[in-house]
Amino acid sequence: MAEGAGATGTFGKAPWGSRLLGPVEEGAVSRRVRVQVLLTVPLTVANLIGIAVAMVLIGVVLPGPSVFTRKLVLLNFVAVPLYAALALVLGFTWGTVWGLRTLRWSTDPDRIPDQRERHAAARVPRRLVLQQALLWLGGMAVLTPLYGIADPAFVPKFVLGIGFSAIVVCANSYLAAEFALRVITARVLDAAPSRQARGVGVFGRSMLVWMLGSGTPVALLMVLAILALSGVDISTERLAVCVLSLGGATLVFGGVLMTQTLGAAVAPIRGVRNALRRVEDGDLEAAVTVYDGTELGELQAGFNRMVQGLREREQIRDLFGRHVGHDVAAAALERNPELGGEELYAAALFVDIIGSTTMAATRPAREIVTILNDFFAVVVDEVERHGGLVNKFEGDAALAVFGTPAPLSDAAGSALAASRAIRRRLSSETTGFDAAIGVAAGRVVAGNVGAHRRYEFTVIGDAVNEAARLCELAKSEDNRVLGSGATVDAADAAEQKYWTVGESVTLRGRLAPTHLARPQN
What we know:
The chain is an alpha+beta fold. It has helices at residues 28-61, 73-102, 115-122, 124-150, 154-180, 182-191, 201-229, 236-280, 295-324, 326-334, 356-362, 365-385, 411-428, 462-474, 485-490, 493-496; strands spanning 340-354, 389-394, 397-402, 434-451, 454-460, 481-484, 499-505, 514-519. The protein contains 16 helices and eight strands.
């Protein structure tokens, strides 16, 4: 059974490794018919070919008396065809009835098979092969004595000829049954994901196919050679015919069986490879259908577990970044975080809603939450757009820092530009609230503060306090935005032109005066 090209994962056109097995969305009845056809046709064809091979071996190839004599007409044209037809009908009926009864649960797409049904389904390929083997052994048991009565020399020919054909047919039937039942196997493995791989495995399957497809014909040639050496009358011409015929059978049947085996091994690997490419492209929803009961099935299941772990890790990373800021999260993931910090130059932006106490007393809590979310959405958007980090949400206020943990070439200018952008959006959009903004820059200590079991990234320094006081003072300003003169002086010329530095005041809690800077209208 050739494997379909382009086998892919769950979302592909060949979820079970071959297009012959149909798409995922196929109906239960159509799929049941498809499985029945894929089981019946290959097994029937394999048995017909096996019968033809047995007839050629016995009648033409193997040494011994000829079966084409007048006294054997009744056996040749009545007994042999009758048993072959009976065996085919019996095999088809037996296999179909037993298979339908065993796999009855599979007609319900929502049915989850229980343990007994799973074990029975897993045994179907082996049971079908056993049925084939019994029918072939029955043919050997019936026909060999009948021909042996006519001439005992027929016994070795029938044993070797029927035995060789039976081995090849059974091997092919097993591989064909495994292929046709991949859809069923996938449901069995999905119902019991922790089920260990059973059977001979990939290595055992390959060795078995080699033994049946190549080892058996070679062994038969060796038997003929032993017979010739032991004194059995085998002409040179007959020996040459035997070698050529069995050698050709080795090439043909060995090649067919090996192709099936390699196809069964390559299909799961190809599906995992294609899914890996999707993961490399960033698609963490990629998955493969687990339909192989060997180590390759464990590979498929392992890939799905790996992608599930990646999805969970990415979800945790995203949640971590949402809580502490993506820059802080990235820094924590890149190096081992520890308590303490480092001194550096940074800018702080403090923003606070005006009249939030009155708002909380006069409006429902749900409405207050909606207002705060709209407010913080503007703040986060503009701060991140200007390269900063919203470090804290404090009720109806927020603290943003620029220059840490991600460095900025112009931290002061970025903070000032962000304050103007926030104010512009709050003024232009219908928000139902007003807010004041204060901006200051200077030397701060940035790092992790807390305990070893629980800490957070924060920024501590005079610039942070100054920004908070400026925000408080800005509530009485018409434009609602105040910066320090030192921050404007530290900014690039491109940002300085938007600001005017005015009088100096001593802010609450500070000793040194601060020059107030206001954005130009």
